[in-house]
Write a structure and sequence with these properties.
Layout lengths: L3 E3 L13 E4 L5 E5 L7 H5 L7 E3 L3 H22 L2 H17 L9 H14 L2 H8 L7 H18 L4 H12 L10 H5 L6 H7 L2 H9 L7 H9 L18 H17 L10 H13 L5 H12 L1
Antiparallel strand pairs: 1-4, 2-3
GO molecular function, one term: hydrolase activity
Protein name: Metal-dependent phosphohydrolase
Pfam families: HD_5 (PF13487)
Length: 304
Amino acid sequence: MPDLIPIKKSHIKYYNNFPLYYISKNGEALLYKNADKKLDKDLLERNQYPQFFIHKEDKVSVVEKLQRVLNIKLARAISSKGLYAIKKSLCNIVEEALSGPLGVTLESLPETIEILFYGVKKNSDLLDALTAINNKSSKVVEHSVNVLALTAQYCFFKRYSEEQIKTFCLCALLHDFGSSKIDKKIIETKEKLTDKEYSIYKTHTIKGFREIELYPTFDKSIGITALEHHERLDGSGYPHGIKQISFEAQLVGLIDSYEALKYQDKTFRKALKPYDALQIIKTDVVAEKYNKAIFVDLCSCLIK
C-alpha cells in the first residue's frame, strides 16, 4: 500500500468529498467510494466503518481541509469559553502536527496561533482557562499544550509584542517535536528511564531541530528552541553541553521543567504543588543552571 495513507476513524466525516479506500481480507487495496459519493450518517454515528485510506495524491487537499476544520473548532471553543472544548481543540491541532498519520504541515500552525491569540485578546478568560487546566498526562500533546499555555501567560505578563508572542508560543508548541520520533513507550512511561532509554530520549532535541529546519517559513528560533531547551547555563545540559543558550530556549526550557514537576505523575514521585515545583527549580537557579530573571518573572506571573 505504498500510495495509500491511513486516516483516523474520528476524522472520517471530514473526508466526504474524497475517494476512500479499504483493505480486503485478502490484503488487497480496494476503492470504497468515489469523491462524489457520500458516507452514511448512521454508520458514521455508530462508528461502523472500516479503517479507511486516502491516496497520496489527495494528501495536500485533505490536510488543508482538516486544518480548516480544526481551526474552526478552535475558534468556536474560544467563543464558548468552555475549558474542555478549548483543550480538546488545542490537543487535536497539536496532535495532528506532531504525530498524525497525514503529517499535517507545520506551515499551517501559524494560522492556528493567529486564531488562538485573536481569541485571547477578545476573551481574557481563555488564558486563565488554559493555564488552569491541571493535566497530569505525560503525553507529548498534553505536555505541549500546557507549555504553550504557560509560555503565553509569561509573554502577556511581560507585555511582549504580538509578533514576539506568536514566535515564543510556536517555540513552546513545537519544543518537543522530536519526541514524535522516539519510541512511544519511552515517551509515555511513568517509570524512571534506564540509562539506555535516557540516551535514546535525549536524541529528541536533535531530531526536533532537524525536522523543524525542513520548514523554511518558521523563525530560526523555533528550531533552536527544540535543540537547546534541555541545555543549561552551567553547561550541564544536553545535547551539546553548551552555556550560550538562546533566550527562547532558556524560557521554554525552564517552563518545560516546571510543567513536568507540576503536572506529571511518575511512579517515583507525585506531581508537585506550584510552590514546591518552583522551590526545586529555584535550587537549580541558585546553581546557575537557569536564568534568574526569567525565573523571577515566571514566579511573578504565576502568582499574579
